[in-house]
Amino acid sequence: xxxxxxxxxxxxxxxxxxxxxxxxxxxxxxxxxxxxxxxxxxxxxxxxxxxxxxxxxxxxxxxxxxxxxxxxxxxxxxxxxxxxxxxxxxxxxxxxxxxxxxxxxxxxxxxxxxxxxxxxxxxxxxxxxxxxxxxxxxxxxxxxxxxxxxxxxxxxxxxxxxxxxxxxxxxxxxxxxxxxxxxxxxxxxxxxxxxxxxxxxxxxxxxxxxxxxxxxxxxxxxxxxxxxxxxxxxxxxxxxxxxxxxxxxxxxxxxxxxxxxxxxxxxxxxxxxxxxxxxxxxxxxxxxxxxxxxxxxxxxxxxxxxxxxxxxxxxxxxx
Length: 319
Ligand code: 8YV
Description:
Elements: E1 5-8, H1 14-23, E2 25-27, H2 37-46, E3 49-51, E4 71-73, H3 84-89, E5 93-95, H4 102-117, H5 120-128, E6 149-153, H6 157-170, E7 173-177, E8 190-191, H7 195-201, E9 204-207, H8 221-226, E10 232-235, H9 244-252, E11 258-261, H10 272-275, E12 280-282, H11 291-309
Parallel strand pairs: 1-2, 1-3, 3-4, 4-5, 6-7, 6-9, 7-8, 9-10, 10-11, 11-12
Helix pairs in contact: 1-11, 4-6
2-keto-D-gluconic acid binds at residues 53-54, 75-78, 101, 287-288.
């Protein structure tokens, strides 16, 4: 039987590329340069499956006609870069990779939280630039973490993994907002009625809701004004959840103490006004970036497209 033609839009871990090359008629992006819109369009027209990532914009226009692909096997849990309604209308199945990146992303949220609280980025910059004059009692004092209150916005898999780390690892009180009632947690946590309620009490606010749709600018000027001046905002979800302009203004006005950001609205562009600040920690979208996790994500995509080509329901179908 002829192997399905599969186009992979970016470099993937070698183990996963080898498995793809074995099972499919696979085309890889050896140079790892993001595909242009016309190249994505050609991929959809020429392959049975296209395997995109967050760096590919798959808007409605790409699904307008002349499509051969039956499935988009997205490498990643978030899929707000794909217009899934347009994909579904064009008869294309879309899958994602939930579960396998939960721990890595939660670990990175904690990395940002600790770096913000303990001024780790500032300290490292000072030392590397040769400006450290030595220990002194008042040097780079930050914010205590243990025993504080973590506020989670979006208590799904990753939100719960962050909350669990904060509760068991740092003895923190956990409050959260989720649009659904969340039960069966194995640690103490209080579900509050609104995002604003969480912002009003949390020392650290960590975002774990999907991007796009109703969540665009969920954290806007009004909501930032509700944060406590000693509090930090952590975002490992999607850049569009936070109004970056409003965040910069709120930091200027000291409405919050700082922010730890792994995601940005127009990646890889990050506003200079954020890059120049000492009260923000910024990382280049590293949430799931461990070797183990990236391999597991790739294998999950393979599982999804394999099931699809066998005529069965892919386990992680989102459209
Ligand atoms: C990925 C992510 O690196 O899975 C996600 O939603 O944000 C990251 O873990 C990236 O999105 C891959 O497409």
